[in-house]
Structure to design on (452 residues):
């Protein structure tokens, strides 16, 4: 563990001896002797700090700060500073822990920044230390995205402990940082104390069974968290123990709106545990059980609970194996009983024409179901004709499905379009905004957090 006292001496944790930079000064006086052109406060502050601390200037950060300064000149407030490392629109220099040290010194005094997105960078535990310091010092920060930044258990511990006293942060993404079971336990402990965080994403963080159980236990009491993502924990054995505890949590919790349990190795017994809880739960609106091992037998339990559950609005069953029989169970319930579900994804479920046509028929009698995603199954001509008819008659809007009909030599086919429940969960589009409605319909229909 590093010594936090090093910062007072001008060096962050793990920093090497400062090396003087030769980057030209964009704020220096021009050669003709005229007054220097200062483009903005944050940009100039960043440059001066880099000079003072002999820190190499990151031109990507300099460019982003210039854009923020322009927004501030217009009188904007509540700005999200987007320094994502996976933007394709311009060649970027990934943000490191040392870069984040300088950013921390700027942002801790800026009341106009309410969000910070540094996804897909290299800040590591060094940057996590300063992220924790930022959470302690900056009381206007509402959104923090640290996904895929090589943060380990120690960095996770620092951020979790910083949230014990933080009362402003509402949305935190730690996706893809390998904080493991140790870090997960610190976040679970934090939820016993923190009363402001509303959405927490710990997907792909290598959580263990112990921390998953800890989250399920804590959420029986926590009345603030509205959305949680526990995707892809590292679980051993075939007991499906996590669903037992998550099911118990859903029976007791009356605030959770969004639950993601993708890649939990859930089988039919596990989905039964969750369905038993949904008979009693009256708050959950978005359930993601994609990428599991649920078959048509599990759909019997789900179809039955959907007859009485009136709160669930978005259901993600993608990448399971419900086949024709499972699709028929769902379509029967949707046609005659359920009037609350608004979006259903059965992408890549080994469903053939018979099951897909049954789902299309249920939409003709169900006025509520508006979004259906079916790509990755086995289309026949009847399937293509059925979904083409739904689109042509206006019952299924083109933005609300992931297929588009076209005709070749008199035969109807379906092509894939980039719509879905959470298409931009891991990646950003090359052009345009990442938070548009049609590719991210799940988050649009159930808007728990303001950002992905």
């Amino acid at each position: 563990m590093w010594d936090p006292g090093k910062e007072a001496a001008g060096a962050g944790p793990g920093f090497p001896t400062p090396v003087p930079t030769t980057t030209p000064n964009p704020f220096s006086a021009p050669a003709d002797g005229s007054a220097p052109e200062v483009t903005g406060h944050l940009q100039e502050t960043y440059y001066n700090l880099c000079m003072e601390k002999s820190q190499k200037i990151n031109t990507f950060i300099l460019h982003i700060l210039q854009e923020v300064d322009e927004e501030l000149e217009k009188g904007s407030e509540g700005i999200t500073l987007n320094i994502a490392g996976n933007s394709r629109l311009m060649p970027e220099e990934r943000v490191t822990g040392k870069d984040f040290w300088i950013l921390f010194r700027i942002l801790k005094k800026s009341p106009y920044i309410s969000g910070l997105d540094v996804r897909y960078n290299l800040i590591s535990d060094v940057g996590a230390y300063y992220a924790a310091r930022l959470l302690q010092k900056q009381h206007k920060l509402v959104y923090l995205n640290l996904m895929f930044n090589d943060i380990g258990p120690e960095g996770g511990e620092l951020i979790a402990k910083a949230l014990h006293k933080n009362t402003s942060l509402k949305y935190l993404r730690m996706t893809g940082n390998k904080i493991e079971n140790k870090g997960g336990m610190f976040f679970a402990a934090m939820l016993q104390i923190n009363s402001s965080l509303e959405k927490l994403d710990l997907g792909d963080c290598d959580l263990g069974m112990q921390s998953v159980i800890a989250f399920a236990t804590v959420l029986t009491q926590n009345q603030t968290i509205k959305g949680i993502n526990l995707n892809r924990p590292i679980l051993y054995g075939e007991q499906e123990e996590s669903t037992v505890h998550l099911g118990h949590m859903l029976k007791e919790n009356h605030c959770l709106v969004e639950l993601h349990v993708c890649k939990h190795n859930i089988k039919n017994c596990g989905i039964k545990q969750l369905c038993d809880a949904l008979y009693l739960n009256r708050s959950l609106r978005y359930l993601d059980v994609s990428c599991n091992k649920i078959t048509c037998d599990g759909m019997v339990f789900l179809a039955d609970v959907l007859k009485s559950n009136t709160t669930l609005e978005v259901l993600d069953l993608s990448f399971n194996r419900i086949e024709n029989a499972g699709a028929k169970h769902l379509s029967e319930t949707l046609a005659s009983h359920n009037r609350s579900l608004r979006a259903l994804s059965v992408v890549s479920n080994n469903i053939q024409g018979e099951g897909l046509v049954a789902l299309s028929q249920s939409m003709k009698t169900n006025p509520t179901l508006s979004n259906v995603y079916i790509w990755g199954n086995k289309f026949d001509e009847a399937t293509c004709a059925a979904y083409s008819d739904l689109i042509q008659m206006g019952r299924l809007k083109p933005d609300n499905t992931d297929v588009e009909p076209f005709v070749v030599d008199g035969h109807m086919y379906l092509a894939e379009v980039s719509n879905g429940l959470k298409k931009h969960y891991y990646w950003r589009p090359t052009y345009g905004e990442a938070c548009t409605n049609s590719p991210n319909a799940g988050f649009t229909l159930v808007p728990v957090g303001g950002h992905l």
